[in-house]
Amino acid sequence: MISILVKILVCLFAGLGAGLGTGFAGMSAAAVIAPMLIAFLGMPAYEAVGIALASDVLASAISAYTYGKNKNLDIKNGLVMMVTVLIFTMFGSFIASFVPNTTMGTASVFTTFLLGIKFIVKPVMTTKEAMAGVSQTKRLVQSVLAGMMVGFICGFIGAGGGMMMLLVLTSVLGYELKTAIGTSVFIMSFTAFTGAVSHFVIGGMPDIATLLLCIVFTLLFARVAAIFANKASPSTLNRAVGVVLTLLGLSIFAVNLLT
After folding, report:
1. 171: exposed, middle or buried (C-beta count within 10 Å: 0-12, 13-18, 19+)?
2. More confident residue, 161 or 103
3. How do residues 154-187 score in pLDDT, each as one tens digit?
4. How far apart are CA 168 and CA 88, in angstroms?
5. 3-state secondary structure string, the chain?
6. pTM for the full model?
């Protein structure tokens, strides 16, 4: 029997990692919370992912609100990308059903780690002025194409949505870092909601105590991280994002060894 104290501590550290990852880098909470619930609480994977996605909804929403309040959110193109991501996630999942199971979750862990190193070694220093130089038509086309790519990959491998969006927004679409993170968490709040509802409808309600603890802790730390990120200079934010992603990548890899 798992004690209440152990459950609280696991949810606290899971929420800490997930919240910082969401607020700082638009990372999906599912990548952090699910492995920890599985490894330390012995929770079934499907139930753990459902709790992680539910935790991601409010954490991403409050982060998006904070970035939007600081004018670091591209809602128009974010909505276009979100719709495309949702459609192609379903398509990717359908294609994946015909492919033998592989350890694709590991790809998400390495993506997190490598992306963290990338932000430290080669920071994103694009300005909002440079972003404004791209025509709306070109930006909309880019958003659709990026959404198709991110959605298909997420649906096919089942993970990595937040990381893929951040990578595409900064490296492919040329977004300024804060706007990229703000747009990423905006999209993730909707995709996480869709995923959480589907998990609860199919698998039933999870352990309520664990669900509430993860939601509260993730929300708290995501809010703190988002406030800090919006006040930080571009160079400081790049380093913070890099360090957080690198440490989370290593931590998730370590936790996966226990499962």
Report:
1. middle
2. 161
3. 666 555 567 778 888 888 888 999 999 999 999 8
4. 15
5. CCCHHHHHHHHHHHHHHHHHHHHHHCCCCHHHHHHHHHHHHCCCHHHHHHHHHHHHHHHHHHHHHHHHHCCCCCHHHHHHHHHHHHHHHHHHHHHHCCCCCCCCHHHHHHHHHHHHHHHHHCCCCCCHHHHHCCCHHHHHHHHHHHHHHHHHHHHHHCCCHHHHHHHHHHHHCCCCHHHHHHHHHHHHHHHHHHHHHHHHHHHCCCCHHHHHHHHHHHHHHHHHHHHHHHHCCHHHHHHHHHHHHHHHHHHHHHHHHHC
6. 0.84
Residue count of the chain, please give it: 259
Q: Which residue has the tokens 């004018």?
A: 71
SS (HEC) of 124-177: CCCCHHHHHCCCHHHHHHHHHHHHHHHHHHHHHHCCCHHHHHHHHHHHHCCCCH
First to last CA, the chain: 18
CA–CA separation, 249 vs 146, rounded Å? Answer: 24
The string of pLDDT tens digits covering residues 122-157 is 888 777 777 877 888 888 888 898 888 887 776 665
42's tokens: 């012995």
The four Cα atoms 34, 35, 38, 40 give a dihedral, to 10 degrees, of -120
> What is d(CA 48, CA 33) in angstroms, rounded to the nearest whole number?
7
Orientation angle between helical segments 105-121 and 136-157, nearest 10 degrees: 140
- Where are the chain's structural domains? 4-258
